[in-house]
Amino acid sequence: MINTYDEGLANPNIFKQLSVRDLLFVYYKCPQIDRLVNLYNHYNLIAFSLEGERILHQSGKSWKVTPQTSYFQRKSAYVQELPDAQSWNVLAFHIPDEFLIQFANEYMDSLPIENLPTLTSDMLIKIELNEVTKTYFYSLIPYFKQTIPPTEQLLELKFKELFLNILSNPLNKQLLAYILHLNDEIKPPIWQIMEKNYMYCLTLNEFARISSRSLSAFKRDFVKYYNTSPGKWLTNKRLNYAAKLLITTKQSISDIVFNSGFKNLSHFSRIFKEKFKVSPQQYRKYGLSS
Fold this sequence. Notes:
By secondary structure, the chain is an alpha+beta fold. It has 12 helices and 11 strands.
């Protein structure tokens, strides 16, 4: 799958970029051509939509991103939909957990930490904007156009100032709750990563990156929790999900293959029949008639 952080680094002509250590800031016009594309992030992401629209889908939920809106995106895989061939101009900030934890500890006394809401498991957290935060987003754009890039110290200061303004807004307490949660749990639970992302065609290396683990640590923690190998668990989980989609939706078989995390129709059909003893078409027919 396409990793948005890696894609940005590899294509500086498309994704104008600035960086401070592992922090990556990008300013770009989205190059998406296909209506649907599978993407994933192994860092957190803040995006500000300048113009145009996209629709993001993850774990049965959808979010429409419109102009002059902002959101925080947790580490995850997802589907990005291109509506009506619209262009999309975006400012995006890729942010490691460690930076968020350090920031929270540094500015704890300045943040409204009372009466925080219960943390949700949604991939997207909407960022409520005011004129000050919008102005800060726009003030960063000229830095991408300078011949001589700004210093790392200046960029980090500008970003911290922006972030402090976002988190100081009482309407953004869900985001604050998530960041403070990271202080208690640096690595997300294996089950949380797997249950949210099994339906995407991620490799084990990609699952490990999203879970902030090395591949060996990911496999060890996975077996400890599920008592089986990641490969066996993923195949079984995806097949059961595909079977559910066959009965409960009108999606084509090809779309179900895509939406269940399988690479191609022939492989899916073969292992589906091995598990359920009938073809996907027959399973749908019998299921709908029963």
